# Entry
Amino acid sequence: MTTRRWRLPDAPLRTSVVVAAGLGLLGVMLLGLAIGPLLHASGRYPFVATAVFAAMAALVVGAIAAGHPFPLFGSANHVTMLRAALVALVAGLAEERPATLMAWFVVALTAMLAALDGVDGWLARRTRMASPFGARFDTEVDAFFILLLSLLVWRFDKAGAWVLGCGLMRYAFVASGWVLPWMAGPLTPTYRGKFVAVLQVVGLAVALAPVVPSPFSDAVAGVTLAALTWSFGVDVRRLHSAG
# Structure
C-alpha cells in the first residue's frame, strides 16, 4: 500500500473500513493483554502490538479509496484484516527477550496465517469484489510477516543477521524502482513466485521452531534465502529484458 494518494474514502465505504479497523484494534489489544502474561512478555507487549496494528490500519483506511471500487470493505478484506491483526501480535514480540514459549507461539500463529492465506483471494473472487487494493493489502501483510519472521529467527540466534535478507529483499526490490524506472515495471504473477513466497514463511517458521537447533536452523534459513534470491533474480532479468 502507498500513502501517495492518502485520503479518507467516501461513505459508506468509510464507515465499513473504519469499523473493521476499530474491531481489529480492540481485538489486538484484548488478545495482547490476555496472551502477554502467558508468554511472560513485558507489560509493553499489548501496547506495542496494538500500535503496530494501528499503523497498518491507518494505511488501509488511507489507501483503500484509490483501489477499491466497492461501497463496502468486503469479506475478503475482513479476512486480510484478521491476518494483519495476527501479524501485529507477532510484531509485538520483536522487542521482547527471546523465550522458547514465544517461539512456539509464533510458529502456531504462522500455521493459522498459512491456513487463512488464500481464503481472502477466494472470497474476493466468489463475492466478485476482487480489487487492486485487496491484492496489494494481501501482499503487504505477507511481506511484513516475512520480515518479522526473519527478524525473530535472527533475534532467537537461529541464524546470523544475513537472514534479514529474507524480509528486506522485497522492500529493496520495490525501492530500486524509484532509482531504476525499468525495475518498476509490471510483473505477471507466477507459480514460481507464489511457491517461493510460501517457502519463505514455512522455512523461517521451521528455523524458528525450538526443536530445530543450530546449525540445522541456519541451513534451513540459508536454503530459504537462496530460493528467494534466485526468484528475485529471475524477476530482475524479466524486467530488464522488458525495459
Observations:
- Residues 13-242 form one domain.
- The CA atoms of residues 183 and 239 lie 6 Å apart.
